[in-house]
C-alpha cells in the first residue's frame, strides 16, 4: 500500500523548509521583476515591425519622436540627441511614440498628451500597461482610445515576449469624451 501523507513530524519540518524556500524565491522574483520592469539600464524596446505596420495602416504615422536612425518607424523622426521631449511634434501630425521605458516614461506620456491638444493631432503611444501608476491615471485615462494587446510583444527581434503587458494609448485632439474607448487587439 502506498502512503500519500507523510508523518506529522515530516509535514512540520517540510513546511518550514518550503515556507523559507518560498520566501527566498519570492524575494528573488521581486528583485528580478523590478530589474526587468523598472530598470533604466535597458529603456529602448524596438517596436516589432509587423505590429507597427498594422497600426500604421490605420493611422498613417508621419513622426517618430523617440527613434534611433536604424529603428525609426517614420520618415520624420527625432533621435536621443535631438531630444524629442524638447521638440514640437505638431500641429497637424500623426505621431507614433514608443518611449524609453525607464524612469522618464512619465515625461514622455505627459508630452504625448500635451502635444495631442494641438490642432489636428493624433499621438499613439506604445506603452507598458501599468494601470496602477499615477501617470496612467493622470494621462492615459484622458486618451480617446486604449488598445490592450493580447499576449506579449517581442521587442527588438527577441525570441521571447516582453516581461510586461503592453497597450497602445491614443490621444486625439478632437476627442472630448470623459473616458477612453477600450479595446483588445492582437499582436
What descriptive keywords fit this protein?
Rossmann fold; disordered N terminus; 17% strand; 187 residues; single chain; five-stranded mixed β-sheet; alpha/beta
Give a written overview of the molecule:
The protein is an alpha/beta fold and 187 residues long. The chain has 2 domains: 1-38; 49-186, Rossmann fold, CATH 3.40.50. The protein has helices spanning 8-38, 49-59, 105-116, 134-138, and strands spanning 93-97, 121-128, 145-150, 166-172, 181-186. The protein has a 5-stranded mixed β-sheet with strand order 1-2-4-3-5, with helices on one face. Strand 1 (93-97), helix 3 and strand 2 (121-128) form a beta-alpha-beta unit. The protein is globular, with a radius of gyration of 21 Å. Residues 1-42 have low confidence and may be disordered.
Amino acid at each position: 500500500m502506498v502512503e500519500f501523507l507523510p508523518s506529522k513530524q515530516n509535514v512540520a519540518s517540510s513546511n518550514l523548509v518550503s515556507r523559507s524556500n518560498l520566501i527566498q524565491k519570492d524575494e528573488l522574483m521581486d528583485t528580478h521583476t523590478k530589474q526587468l520592469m523598472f530598470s533604466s539600464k535597458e529603456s529602448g524596446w524596438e517596436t516589432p515591425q509587423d505590429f507597427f505596420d498594422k497600426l500604421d495602416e490605420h493611422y498613417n504615422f508621419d513622426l517618430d519622436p523617440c527613434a534611433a536612425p536604424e529603428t525609426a518607424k517614420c520618415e520624420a523622426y527625432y533621435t536621443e540627441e535631438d531630444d524629442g521631449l524638447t521638440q514640437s511634434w505638431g500641429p497637424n501630425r500623426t505621431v507614433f511614440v514608443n518611449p524609453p521605458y525607464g524612469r522618464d516614461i512619465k515625461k514622455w506620456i505627459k508630452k504625448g498628451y500635451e502635444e495631442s491638444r494641438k490642432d489636428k493631432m493624433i499621438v499613439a503611444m506604445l506603452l507598458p500597461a501599468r494601470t496602477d501608476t499615477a501617470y496612467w491615471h493622470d494621462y492615459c485615462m484622458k486618451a480617446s482610445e486604449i488598445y490592450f494587446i493580447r499576449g506579449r510583444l517581442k521587442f527588438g527581434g527577441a525570441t521571447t515576449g516582453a516581461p510586461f503587458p503592453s497597450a497602445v494609448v491614443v490621444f486625439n485632439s478632437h476627442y472630448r469624451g470623459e473616458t477612453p474607448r477600450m479595446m483588445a487587439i492582437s499582436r
